Amino acid sequence: MKIHLALEALHADENALARELFRLAERHKVDHDIYHLGRDLARWSQRHVTEIATVAARFGAELDPKPPGESTLPEKVREKAADLMGRRGEAALLLLRDLRGVYTGAAGVYADWELVAQAAQGLKDTELMKVAERCGAESKRQMKWANGKLKESATQILLS
Asked: What is the model's pTM?
């Protein structure tokens, strides 16, 4: 069985999505919706990381149950410096780029959960199926939120 490989990939992808959501929230904290919802959605991915590590142990994968936290102060300083040095145009374009990153990350995580759900169904593993359904549904909501924010912001940002 190769289910442990899918769980390892999903674990890495959820960790990356949590970091990306925290980064989005931190960079755009003046937008209260993005700041607060971004942090809430990042916590969902953190919880998913813990759940994946718990269930993956049954399939021989040893994954760290501790998800990434928010950026440390030195990381925040490095990110801010990189943002300032790398900007080419309006700062609002950074929001679109960050939302796109979250959207594509969440879409990948959602696809990963679909794969795990299919494996759980094939194995007739009800515990894994419940985790995949619950976490997959939340990943789908993360993806839809990022897509909605992209649509909401794109016209104003790109045409101003």
From this structure: 0.86
